[in-house]
Amino acid sequence: MLRRLVAPALATLLVAVLSGCGIGLGTAGGYTPSGTLAGSLAKVKPLDGATIAVGSKNFTEELVLGKMAVILLKSAGADVKDLTNIPGSDASRKAQLSNQIQVQWEYTGTAWLSYLRHTKPITSPEAQYTAVRDEDLKKNKLVWLPPSPMNDTYTMAVTRATSKKYGITKLSQIGKVPIKQRTFCVESEFTNRSDGLKGMLQTYRLPLGSAKGVPRSNLKTLQTGAIYDATAKGSCTFGEVFTTDGRIKALDLVPLADDKGFFPKYNGSVVIRKDLMDSYPQLEQLFAPVSSRLTNDAMLKLNAEVDVDGREPGAVAFDWLKQEGLLAD
Fold first, then answer.
1. Which of 19, 32, 152, 194 could serve as 314's disulfide partner, Cβ 3.0–4.6 Å?
2. Distance CA 302, CA 308 (A)
3. What is the domain partition of the chain in residue ranges?
4. Nearest to residue 189, comparing CAs of 181, 198, 180?
5. Distance between start and end Cα atoms, the chain
6. Number of other residues whose CB lies within 10 A of the CB of residue 205
7. With helix as H, strand as E and coil as C, how does 136-165 read?
8. Helix (H, G, I), strand (E, B), or coil: what is residue 207?
9. Over the stretch 272-306, which tens digit does the pLDDT of each residue have?
10. How many other CB atoms sit within 10 Å of the CB of residue 107?
């Protein structure tokens, strides 16, 4: 997924240059509040004496999740360095492997396919998590805490009117739409990849380039940000989206369920260096109730508060933790 990745050479150079200049990784900036742990977190043993650097990538969802981690750790008594807003997956990964950061949210699919370099995703979310957890611990001494239900992967979305008109809520129903109206707004890179549009259509028996499937003339190539608006305005029937993007909610789009499980699973999980986890095992208890509450619907709302309403990720994260009864002023 392009928004999770930057060119590895560029990311490596960026980390090396920043570290070599003695200025370290950049931060998200701005004040991040803390509070008093409440509800099920009130019993978490304080992290007194712990010094922890928290990282995140530089897109909205990662910034919100990163700020949640900063807030929780500060509220638990740790001395926290905010290093959220790192440009890209490869840079944030290298920062954790080199101990510049100790805690960050990651995605199971990203680790399996990009970091651990496997070529085929595992269709079961539970099996995907277990495989990543075990291999990353063994090879890199990174601990993956149990993942959240939210799965930030690809799918196709339609307008609510289109969903009602054709009675479609899942990808296997795309064929109910007449071929002339079976149009798609997609990124150019997504079009021909085996794990992108071509592979998806093949899985759902609507081959790309076929007169009875999806003719190539039915494709409209756009930049990622333009796809959501174009789909909402009817420029195409189906638009390529990320399942937790706040614009889905803001534009009242209907994401279609991937009922054959084609797309890789990208469940979010807190990843912690083993040496830190060994010293503070209560970290698992601290993050568990947060992860369990982060569904796709919850993440859609949080992302929309930033991307649509213009709120700061730290404020959105703090308010949500309070609303969930996990934090008090």
1. 32
2. 10
3. 2-151+265-328, 154-255
4. 198
5. 37
6. 13
7. HHHHHCEEECCCCCCECCEEEEEEHHHHHH
8. coil
9. 999 999 999 999 999 999 999 999 999 999 999 99
10. 28
* Residue listed under structure tokens 């989206």: 241
> How far apart (Å, rounded) are the C-alpha atoms in residues 303 and 245?
6
**How many C-beta atoms surround the C-beta of residue 250 within 10 A?**
16
Q: What is the pLDDT of residue 263?
A: 93
Residues of the chain with pLDDT > 70, as a percent, come to: 91
Q: What is the mean pLDDT of residues 79-97?
A: 95
pLDDT at 207 over 70: yes
Which superfamily does 2-151+265-328 belong to? Periplasmic binding protein-like II (3.40.190.10)
With beta carbons less than 8 A apart as the criterion, state whether 104 and 66 touch: yes
pLDDT (0 to 100) of residue 25: 58
C-alpha angle 53-55-56 in degrees, rounded to nearest 5: 165
44: left (phi over 0), alpha (psi -120 to 50) or beta: beta
Tokens of residue 239, six digits: 């638009």
CATH number for the domain running over 154-255: 3.40.190.120
In this prediction the pTM is 0.86
DSSP string, 62-93: HHHHHHHHHHHHHHTT-EEEEEEEESSHHHHH
HSE (side-chain half, CA atoms, 13 Å) at 49: 4
Q: How far is CA 15 from CA 7, 58, 150, 217, in A?
A: 12, 14, 29, 43
